[in-house]
Specification:
The chain is mostly helical. The chain is built from 27 helices and 4 strands. Helix 17 runs antiparallel to helix 18.
Length: 531
């Protein structure tokens, strides 16, 4: 089978997700499904692409390749069902109606052969895929004339029917089917698992967890149950418990996306070395896995190696110009460099591909607040909280915007919600901002020190502290702080910035004292700032 190697690049930019709770999983599952399709593992591809449709029935391009994956793995009835959905949705697109006709003929021919002593039925072997001309037009996938033998299609089971109902978001009917299965087979792990999937798809993560846990108790080797349980905890910002589940999933199957999700949990817990180890391993196996590369870019960014992060992101975007995650990381880099308008543009580009992705929404809201578009940023963050009241990133953005607006008591309410989950560096930073605006510099200094302690050695908080010392005219301590940055974070972009600020401050202090700056001496108080 011929396959354009860059098919994933083109496809991802089409898949505009509409299923809010599945926002983190969908691009990962699509990528993996297409990799398996390219490798001619049609059954595996159908597994992943089927999960995408379970989570978001509007993923039309994923459904298109699911049709071929199912047909090539002998599941003609299921393939026809999905082909009909596409034909119904796009009645004027000939490739979909042609697919339906082809599959109906194949099934009719298969039934005729069954009647003639069940001789094997040949169906086209290859699907030759073209590229894409525009965002809205898909070239027709052509069938080759070379047949291959396939297994006889199996009759749909009750579980199959329930899954198809989930595809159609007919959850009440699907639940009734699953309940009937569980009446007869109380320990049917798959039926229990799909009860959880329905809750997960509805964004009811807390209600989904007991179902996945029950499925795991019945079948301790259920990779998918561990995976989705981990993603439930990740959606609730409980990264420690999420990491536990992803580790257990990896013990069952060394799945690349379970590894990437585990690495993401470590990043969120400031365990950068652990995360880097995992992502480096994934990246070394397959440098074309964009999510692994972009995870490494985030680690480089957080560690202060901004140029390395930029280089990685640019390489991904050169291959995949519409990669949403790449635009998300690029927005983080620009935000870190205080290029707020540009950061907002990149976050917006990420959202164009996946409009319901929570982390993209939260970052976009933050970039708006930092770009002094506070009302718009508050509105965007408020929309997230309206659906997910415990979302930490949205709460922090609301608190920051409210502090900038002078609504300190309202900001405090949001900070209290975040604090319930435990100490958070973002809260310490916001308290420092609030104290500064109230003229309470001693308090602000203490909060900045907490900010640095909770940030696990990231250079950005140290730089913010040094800049704050300058802003309150504590140039002597600022000079020492910059020296510490240059020493602690050698070879990073922050060390270079710190060296520039040291020279400027030395000159400023010398000018204030009326002393000519001597290159061999330093006109400031010796010592260290306690980080």
């Amino acid at each position: 089978m011929r396959m354009i190697k860059t098919i994933t690049i083109f496809l991802i930019f089409f898949l505009a997700g509409s299923s809010l709770p599945a926002q983190n999983l969908i691009p990962e599952l699509v990528n993996q499904g297409l990799k398996l399709y390219t490798a001619k593992d049609y059954s595996g591809a159908a597994d992943y692409l089927g999960q995408v449709i379970d989570m978001d029935p509007n993923q039309d391009q994923a459904r298109y390749y699911l049709v071929f994956s199912l047909s090539m793995s002998g599941q003609l009835e299921k393939s026809l069902l999905h082909a009909r959905k596409l034909a119904e949705k796009f009645p004027r697109q000939k490739q979909y109606t042609d697919l339906v006709v082809q599959l109906e003929k194949a099934i009719a021919g298969d039934q005729k052969k069954k009647e003639q002593q069940r001789t094997s039925q040949a169906i086209p072997k290859e699907v030759i895929l073209g590229g894409y001309e525009t965002k809205d037009v898909m070239r027709e996938a052509k069938m080759s004339e070379t047949p291959r033998e396939i297994a006889q299609p199996k009759e749909l089971t009750r579980l199959d029917k329930a899954i198809l109902l989930i595809d159609e978001e007919l959850y009440a009917s699907a639940s009734a089917e699953l309940d009937e299965i569980l009446k007869a087979e109380p320990k049917n792990a798959k039926a229990v698992h799909y009860k959880g999937v329905m809750k997960f798809n509805s964004g009811l993560f807390n209600e989904a967890k007991p179902w996945f846990e029950k499925a795991i108790n019945i079948d301790p080797k259920s990779f998918q149950s561990f995976f989705l349980l981990g993603d439930c905890y990740r959606a609730e910002d409980n990264y420690e418990k999420a990491a536990e589940q992803f580790k257990k999933a990896i013990e069952i199957k060394n799945d690349v996306f379970a590894q990437i999700n585990l690495a993401d949990c470590y990043i969120k817990q400031n365990k950068l070395k652990e995360s880097e180890k995992i992502l480096t391993e994934v990246f070394s196996k397959d440098p074309n896995i964009a999510d692994a590369a972009l995870g490494l870019a985030q680690i480089k960014l957080f560690g202060g190696f901004t140029n390395d992060a930029v280089e990685i992101v640019n390489k991904v975007l050169a291959r995949e110009p519409e990669n949403a995650e790449a635009h998300f990381v690029k927005a983080q880099i620009l935000l870190d460099g205080e290029l707020f308008e540009d950061a907002a543009d990149e976050a917006r580009r990420a959202l164009e591909s996946f409009p319901n992705n929570l982390k993209y929404k939260a970052l976009y809201a933050l970039t708006l607040v930092r770009a002094y578009k506070v009302p718009q940023g508050l509105e965007e963050a408020g929309k997230i909280i309206g659906q997910f009241p415990d979302n930490i990133d949205a709460r922090l953005t609301l608190a920051e915007g409210l502090i900038l607006s002078g609504a300190y008591s309202d900001a405090e309410e949001h900070m209290q919600v975040v604090q319930k989950a435990g100490p958070h560096p973002g809260i310490a930073r916001l308290r420092a901002l609030k104290a500064t605006r109230n003229g309470e510099n001693d308090k602000a200094g203490e909060h900045f020190k907490s900010f640095m302690e909770l940030s696990a050695g990231r250079p950005k908080p140290y730089m913010e502290y040094a800049a704050w010392l300058e802003s309150v005219n504590n140039n002597s301590d600022a000079l020492v702080a910059y020296q510490e940055i240059a020493e602690l974070f050698k070879e990073t972009a922050y060390a270079e910035i710190a060296k520039t600020r040291i020279e400027q401050l030395e000159q400023k202090i010398a000018d204030e004292k009326g002393v000519k700056k001597d290159g061999n001496s330093q006109n400031y108080r010796k010592g260290k700032v306690k980080f």
